[in-house]
Amino acid sequence: MVAWSRTIRVKQITKNEWQDVRWLLNHLRQTDNMELSLTETDVEKDLFNDEFCNYIAYLGDRPLFIGGISRKTYTGYGHMIWAVCRYDTYDKYKREWVRVSNALMANWKHQYGQLWNMILERNDVSKRWLKRMGATFSDPFIYNGQNWQLFKIEVNQYVQSGMDDRITSSTRVKSIQSNQTAV
């Protein structure tokens, strides 16, 4: 577990956090819930998938967000990243979210290089945050009847953070040994 301040802590998800994960999944931002549904993502199943290293961030005693990064690379794309936040993150806890996410992103970029995923074209709040992380976006494409954009963040792109702290933990993600093609 890594302490970000007196009230924010980030830890790798284990079965011990299951109750908190379920609480967060019932209190997601509407857009995050929609993206999970449209991509047919089963978070409850995927959290314990060995192909991802997943984290939960707490603000006080309640989860702020969950997210993770793939251990494998996807040919031509890099490591897949993801995150979903609770409904009041941007309204009440923007400062905390920015601080923790900047540090996570700096660490992941340093450790893994190119990062990617896709996002609903109309998810302007998350797109603004991703742009600050150095993301570039593809032209929109249609998936499940909605406009989406791929994004990628490369190691040579600047993360606007104003700080240089990276996550350090006794639990390190294993080195990548194989490539997998993105679908």
What's the end-to-end separation, in Å?
Answer: 33 Å
| Integer average pLDDT | 83
- Report the major sheet: 9 strands, mixed
Low-confidence stretches: 1-5, 159-183
Number of strands: 11
Number of helical runs?
6
SS class: alpha+beta
**Helical residue percent?**
25-40%
Give helix and strand order, one letter per element, not per position: EEHHHEEEEHHEHEEEE
Strand content: 25-35%
Overall 3D form: globular
Query: What radius of gyration results from the CA coordinates?
Result: 15 Å
Description:
The structure is a single chain. This protein is an alpha+beta fold. The chain is 29% helix and 31% strand. The chain has helices at residues 18-25, 30-38, 43-46, 89-92, 94-112, 124-132, and strands at residues 2-3, 8-12, 52-59, 62-70, 73-75, 79-85, 115-120, 136-137, 141-143, 146-153, 179-181. The strands form two sheets. Strands 1, 2, 3, 4, 6, 7, 8, 9 and 10 form a nine-stranded mixed β-sheet that branches. A two-stranded parallel sheet has the order 5-11. The radius of gyration is 15 Å and the shape is globular. Mean pLDDT is 83; it is low at 1-5 and 159-183.
